[in-house]
Structures are given as structure tokens and as C-alpha cells.
Amino acid sequence: MSENNYVLFDREGQIAILTFNRPKALNALNRELLQELDQILDQIAQNDEIRCVIVTGAGEKSFVAGADIKEMQAYSVMEARALALFGQSVCTKLERLPKPTIAAVNGFALGGGCELAMACDIRIAAAHAKFGQPEVKLGITAGYGGTQRLPRLVGSGIAKEILFTGDMISAERALSIGLVNHVVEKEELLNFSRSMAERICKQSKCAVGLSKQAVNEGTQMDLDRGLKYEAEMFALSFSVDEHAEGFQAFIEKRSPKF
Ligand code: CO8
Predict the structure, then answer these.
(1) Catalytic site residue 232?
(2) Tens digit of each residue's pLDDT (9 = 90 or more) over 122-140
(3) Which of 68, 73, 174, 232 falls between 20 and 30 A from 221, CA-CA?
(4) What letter does residue 238 receive in the DSSP assignment?
């Protein structure tokens, strides 16, 4: 456990578990929490022993209930822009982390909380989790990527409904629109997420990393350029020894040791 207050950083073998830890404020994102997260992501990026990251919220009620409204209340236009850019840069750092990330959404994922979850590679929701971009109710727009990542995940029509109404949606509805990958009982959330992380950790680190890069970069390109990019990543995977072990294990009818 690190000495951080607002983001707890635990290690379970090759898996890092980050826990947003302001339960009395439903884990709302204040500036210090974002700064801690930013620094921890740098540490994780440089740590070769960590192969997968799970992010979750402290307590049973909330993943993250958004940016800290009390902190934002007195912001000037300049401060709002600066904090939006900083929060976006942290979300982008999470999205581009060279290791797979799983959001274990244990309750409210609203505003900045939904945006953080969307910056993860995979989202698993507890059955009671609720998602939404309620910023319009405060008279502001989403600022940590919601207007950009939500339509890319669920399509612009559904994204606009969520952004324009500010309505919360259930975990089941989030599943049906592709915002989350799985919905599980709250008691099973961490074990389910851990088990997926363990399955990922058993695969070739190089192939998983290149697959993440191919999806992230490719989805910003048209199909022709994306396919060329994929061919480059495919070729690159042949330059790393792990592929030799993967092929040999198949031929010897055993599990590969990556
Ligand atoms: N910020 C600050 N405090 C919060 C937040 C928040 N986002 N959410 C909850 N809290 C606090 C409450 O104020 C309350 O504190 P206290 O006990 O001191 O009064 C405590 O957490 C518990 O909350 P509630 O009593 O309200 O709990 P309920 O179960 O009744 O309701 C809800 C739970 C529905 C989640 C409710 O708390 C709520 O609506 N929260 C706000 C959700 C929201 O609007 N989120 C979006 C925020 S805006 C945003 O995320 C923009 C991101 C981009 C910012 C760009 C930077 C400039």
C-alpha cells in the first residue's frame, strides 16, 4: 500500500489495484486526487512487473461521482479550462497506459467518473452501478472526455441522449449499449475483474500491448490506414521472442510460458 491518501495503490502479483478513496464525497475527483492518479500512472507505466491494472472506488456506493462540484463552484473560465485540460490529460494517460486496464465499477460512475471508466480498456459493472453524464443539470458540459469518448463507445445518438438529459442509466442498460462489458453481482465484482486480469497476464505481454496500441491508434484512423497499422503491429510481434514460445507451445500441445 502506498502512502497516497486519495488513490490507494495495491499490488497483487502482476496486477495493480487502484482505489479512488474519498468515500465520504462518493470518491469525487478533486485536484489532489487527479494529481495522485497522474503520478501513480507514471509509476505503473515504468514498472515492468505490473502487467494489468484494475481501478475501482472505495466503499460500496460509488466508483466516482464526478468532478468535485464544491471545488469547481467558484472556478473562473480560465480555471475551468485548465482543470478540464489537466483531467483530460490524466484520462488520456490512463487510456494510453502500456498495460491493459479494467474499471471495476462498484457504484455511481457519473460525469468525470464515467469519463475515467471510459478511459479504461474494459469496464465491468456491479449490478447496482449507475452511469451518467449529469453535467447539464449543473449548467456545464462534460469536460473530461465525455462528449468524445461516449459517442465513440456507444454511437452519437445514444451518447447525445445521455449527455442532453443528464439521466442516470442502469448497469443493464449500460451493458445493452456497449458501455460496459459485463454486469456481475457486487460481491463478485473484484474477483471477476481479478480473474479477467489474471487471464490477460498469462498472455504474451508484447502481443497484448501491441493489440492495445493497434486498437487505440487504429480507431483514430480510416480503415485502410488502420489495417496498414495492424500489419505493422503484427510484424513487430514477430520481432519479440514471445512468439517463438507461443508457436512452440502450440506444436508441443502445452500451455505457453510467457
Ligand atoms: N462533488 C462533490 N461532492 C459530492 C459529489 C461531487 N461530484 N457527489 C457527491 N458528493 C458528496 C455530497 O455532497 C455529500 O456530501 P455531504 O455529506 O458533505 O453533504 C456526499 O458526497 C454524499 O452524497 P449524497 O448525500 O448526495 O448521496 P446520495 O446517495 O443522496 O446521492 C448522487 C448520490 C446521486 C451521486 C449525488 O451525490 C449526486 O448527484 N452527485 C453529483 C453527481 C454529479 O453531478 N456528477 C458530475 C459532476 S461534474 C463533472 O464530473 C464534470 C467533469 C469535468 C470537469 C471539468 C473541470 C473543470
Answers:
(1) no
(2) 999 999 999 999 999 999 9
(3) 174
(4) T
Grid cell of 205 as nine digits: 505481454
> Cell 457504484 belongs to which residue?
107
Q: Tell me how far the alpha carbon of residue 230 lies from the centroid of ligand 1, in angstroms.
A: 41
Answer yes or no: are the C-beta atoms of 52 and 200 closer than 8 Å.
yes
Measured between alpha carbons, how far is 209 from 177 in angstroms, rounded to an integer? 26
H or E, element range at 228: helix 223-237
Asked if residue 183 lies in contact with residue 127, where contact means CB atoms within 8 angstroms, the answer is: yes
- Alpha-helical (H) ranges within 47-127 are 69-72, 77-96, 112-118
Give ipTM to 2 decimals. 0.98
The pTM (predicted TM-score) of the whole model is 0.96
Q: Which residues contact 222 (CB under 8 A, 6 or more apart)?
A: none
pLDDT in tens, 86-105: 999 999 999 999 999 999 99
Considering 95, 115, 217, 242, which one is annotated as catalytic? 115
